[in-house]
Amino acid sequence: MKPWLAWFSAAFLAVGIPWWTAPYNHFTLSHPLAILGCLAFVCIAAWVAGWTPLGLGRGGLVVGGAVPCAVLARVVVETMKDPTSHSLWPFEVVFAGMFGIGLAYAAGSIGYLFRRLLRSF
User: Fold this and answer.
1) At 25, is the secondary structure helix, strand, or coil?
2) Among residues 72, 56, 54, which one has the least CA distance to residue 6?
3) CA 53 to CA 37: how far, in whole Å?
4) Around Cβ 113, how many Cβ atoms within 10 Å?
5) Who contacts 31 (Cβ-Cβ below 8 Å, separation ≥6)?
6) Three-state secondary structure string covering 41-79
7) What are the domain boundaries of the chain?
8) Cβ atoms of residues 115 and 50 within 8 Å
């Protein structure tokens, strides 16, 4: 198995499980499971950027790309149940992508700087 696929899968599940278990239109980031998922996502992004060969550039894309994929998975499942439930799904996926990649690069930058700080000692 490719190492990037393991990190993508971990981020996909960390973001997806809270997102998939919440009822439609009732998801908030203040829910405890969502907070744990975001913390896990941030830790995964920091780890991938700082301590794997992927680095900040590719690591941010791999981990950040898991967020729109998790949203798209929910859209596909719910659209099969009710075709009118996600009429604006492209916007959902684009906003999730911007949020996921932005957060992944921010957390990855912290992980990368932390590794550089540890190397200087």
Assistant:
1) coil
2) 54
3) 24
4) 14
5) 18, 22
6) HHHHHHHHHHHCCCHHHHHHHHHHCHHHHHHHHHHHHHH
7) 3-119
8) yes
The pLDDT profile of the chain, 121 residues, written as one tens digit per residue, is: 688 999 999 999 999 999 898 887 777 778 888 899 999 999 999 999 999 999 999 999 999 999 999 999 999 999 999 888 888 999 999 999 999 999 999 999 999 999 999 988 7
Measured over the CA atoms of residue 15, residue 92, residue 69 and residue 113, the dihedral's sign is: negative
Distance from C-alpha of 56 to C-alpha of 82, rounded to nearest angstrom: 39
Query: In the Cβ-directed half-sphere of 2, how many Cα atoms lie within 13 Å?
Result: 6
| Nearest residue to 72 via CA among 57, 94, 40 | 94
Q: pTM score > 0.85 for this model?
A: yes
C-alpha 12/C-alpha 96 separation (Å) is 12
